[in-house]
Write a structure and sequence with these properties.
Strands 1, 2, 3, 4, 5, 6, 7, 8, 9, 10 and 11 form an eleven-stranded mixed sheet that branches. The chain has one domain: Beta Barrel (Lipocalin). Helices cover 14% and strands 49% of the residues. The chain is mostly beta strands. Keywords: Signal. It comes from Chitinophaga oryziterrae. InterPro entries: Lipid/polyisoprenoid-bd_YceI, TTHA0802/YceI-like_sf. This is Lipid/polyisoprenoid-binding YceI-like domain-containing protein.
């Protein structure tokens, strides 16, 4: 009798766990804000190293991948971030977890993600992030921020598929000897940028989690 009731609960718990995006700070999302020109020295992104990694989840597992950075620059004045923008090459989308196990499924997944149900890269080849604000930030004791080494709170307009929302997230930014490195990990809700395909939780095992994990890794120099 005990197993009759406990097994469904275990199954439900496992299913719920699989549906969750990786634990990370959830980006605060609001309407688009005005963008000001950055001041100070321009640091241009090294597009051979900088990239945006992603993790998408579903009840049956997850997929990991990346986008390449098309171009970008950040402005620094007196060691403070004052502005900048990053352009992401959406056509560079690549799944990483299937590359050594199932290249046929990898191609199918990449085609679906690049198609009109998701990023529609033929129509919208570039996504853009423009900084609208940057302030010093240190997670305090009891603060629920998960990125404990963050030293900035970055705010900016993220445009995907011609839809612009303002997001804010913690980041770790270091500047030394003319080199700037930046790391950020956060989750965003893809449906806010018009990607609602299979986001309805009533679809159960066909569900694709609306929360997507983003890992931004940047290297830039003067």
């Amino acid at each position: 009798m005990f197993m009759k009731y406990i097994l469904p609960l275990i199954f439900l718990a496992l299913l719920t766990a699989c549906e969750q995006a990786p634990k990370a700070d959830k980006a605060t999302t609001t309407e688009a804000q005005s963008v000001k020109e950055g001041e100070g020295s321009a640091y241009r992104l090294d597009t051979t190293i900088s990239e945006l990694q992603w993790i998408g989840t579903k009840p049956t597992g997850k997929h990991t991948g990346r986008f390449l950075i098309h171009k970008g620059k950040l402005y620094v004045k007196d060691t403070a971030i004052t502005g900048g923008s990053i352009e992401i090459n959406m056509g560079s989308l690549k799944d990483m977890d299937l590359s050594y196990t199932d290249t046929s499924l990898q191609r199918k997944l990449e085609t679906e993600l690049k198609g009109p149900l998701f990023f529609d890269v033929e129509k919208y080849p570039i996504a853009r992030f423009e900084i609208t604000g940057a302030r010093d930030f240190r997670p305090s004791v009891g603060n629920d921020v998960m990125m404990k080494d963050a030293n900035y709170m970055i705010q900016g307009n993220l445009t995907i598929k011609n839809i612009t929302k303002n997001i804010s997230f913690p980041a770790c930014i270091k500047i030394r000897d003319g080199i700037l490195t930046a790391d950020a990990v956060f989750n965003i809700d893809r449906t806010l940028w018009g990607m609602t395909y299979r986001a309805d939780k009533s679809m159960q095992d066909k569900l694709i989690n609306s929360q997507v994990n983003i890992q931004l890794k940047i290297k830039a120099s003067k």
